[in-house]
Amino acid sequence: MLKMDKVNKVYRTDMVETHALNNFDIEVGTGEFVSVMGPSGCGKTTFLNIAGLLDTFDGGTYSLDGADVSRLSDGEMSRIRNEKIGFIFQTFNLIPDLNVVDNVDVPLRYRKVTRQERKRAIEEALMTVGLTSRAKHYPSQLSGGQQQRVAIARALVGKPKLILADEPTGNLDTMMAREILDLLETINRESTTIIMVTHDPELAARARRQIHLLDGRLIDLQADHVVPLYRARKSFPASV
Amino acid sequence: MLAYHIRIAWKSLKRNPILSALIVLGIALGIGVSTTFVTSHHVMSRDPIPEKSSVLYYVEMDNWDPERGFSDEDPKAAPNQVTYRDATALMKSTIPAHQSAMYKSYLYVFPDPKVGRPYRGRVRLCFADFFPMFDVPFRYGVGWDRSADRTPDPVVVLSHETNEKLFGGINSLGRSVRIESREFKVIGVLEPWRPAPKFYDPHNGAYEEGDELFIPFNFVRPMEIRTGGNTSGWKDSGETFEDQLQSENIWIQMWVQLDSERQKQDYKQFLDSYVRGQQALGRMQRPLNNKLLPVMEWLDDQGAVPEEATSFVIISLLFLLVCSLNLIGILLGKFLARAPEIGVRRALGASRTAIFLQHIVECEVIAVIGGVIGVLLSILGLELVSRLFDGMFSLRLDWLMVAAAIGLAMLSGLVAGAYPAWRICSLAPAAYLKEQ
Question: Tell me, what's the ipTM?
Answer without folding.
Answer: 0.87
